[in-house]
Specification:
With 153 residues, the chain is of the alpha+beta class. The protein has helices at 3-14, 20-27, 31-43, 77-85, 111-125; strands at 63-70, 90-95, 102-108, 128-133.
């Protein structure tokens, strides 16, 4: 990955729907160059996809929570994560160090719905949980600088 690739990724991180022609103009290269670079970044697995960012309240899932899971299942954490993935309202799951084994991010319709989801998580994980409700998400999904030259503001 070179500096041009990093600049293209930064532009797409700001808005993944930015037309390649607009990115090319901003970077002073041909539109075909940007298109080709993005294709190569996808082929190499550096760009793995483009995600939809939802207004969770507008789609009826205003409650966000992080459920810490202490798994006592006899299966691996990967197997527990796979089981949690079957719960449609679990939007992410990561292994962590410390008192708990996994953090599952959950979206719910209400606090009652969240309680039902936490019960389902406990059953699948066969362990203790601790739930923290998100009050205000200030930002999510920021992309850090990708190169040494990007470290200055």
């Amino acid at each position: 990955m070179d500096d041009l690739d990093r600049k293209i990724i930064s532009a797409l991180a700001e808005d993944a729907r930015t037309p390649y022609a607009q990115i090319a103009q901003r970077l002073g290269v041909a539109s075909a160059t940007v298109h080709q670079r993005v294709r190569k970044l996808k082929d190499r697995g550096i760009i793995r996809g483009f995600r939809l960012e939802l207004d969770w309240e507008a789609v009826g899932l205003p409650v966000a929570a992080v459920v810490s899971v202490q798994s006592r299942a006899e299966s691996s954490l990967a197997d527990v994560a796979t089981a949690l993935r079957q719960i449609p309202y679990v939007v992410s799951c990561v292994a962590v160090t410390g008192e708990f084994d996994l953090y599952a991010t959950v979206r719910a319709r209400s606090s009652e719905h969240l309680g039902e989801l936490v019960d389902e998580i406990r059953l699948k994980a066969k362990g203790a949980t601790r739930t923290v409700i998100v009050l205000t998400p200030y930002f999510v999904g920021a992309t850090p600088p990708l190169g040494a030259d990007d470290l200055s503001p």
